[in-house]
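Fold this: Bushy growth protein
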Amino acid sequence: MKYYAGTFPKIQPVKFRIPTSEALIPIRLDIEVDGNRFKDSFTWNPTEPDSEVVLFAKRTVKDLKLAPAFITQISQSIQSQLNEFRSLEGQEMLTTEKIVTLKLDLRVNNTIIRDQFLWDLNNFESDPEEFARTFCQDLDIKDPEVGPAVAVAIREQLYEIATQSVTSARETRISKKGRRGGEYVSASKVGGAAVDLMKLFGGKSSVLRKRKEWDLYEPIVDLLSKEEVEALDAREERHARMKKRFSDMDDVYLTNYSSG
């Protein structure tokens, strides 16, 4: 959808913020030490002191009986993701009245969830954790790990959209210097696949699932057998090993190239 000069909606720059009531950062870990792999995802409050990162890593390693070498790896990964978030704080991002489609494609233990729904980016009181709890109740999902995984997946997508909005604001400031006359702004330039909220819902602003109108927006929940879970786990492990092998080969190539 394109808006021509004089007709496009006013896009106001605001300070960077994730469009949720709490600014929790989605953290994802995928770490391998001496052939042992640790994966996890959760949210982190950026106002917590950095000293909590190491304490969290030590508790995790102790509780899960991981090798001590994981403490440093977990700490560095969390700190790196926190630093990335903090680098965005105070920067401008573009915002306009819109909703976006968020998608879920998760496997948590033996439960597979696929779904998509509309999310209002202008609702800064939205609560992904509450949405995830309601989602699990509505679909009668018993596994207590599914709700947190759904909330993290939502927060990851909202965080990515907010990050893209910062990039869009930066590019707009640069392009304004040499831009004049009859221009247009594409709605897709701001925050990815956006839908005009006013046109679709007459000004209503909320998280929506229009099942009666769009069969596409129908959640799918599958329970896998033990054998299917084991097969998927084995496939993921093979993929992770291949990815690491190619990464190591690239590192060796770059080292040899720079030294040559």
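The chain has six helices and ten strands. The first helix runs from residue 51 to 64.
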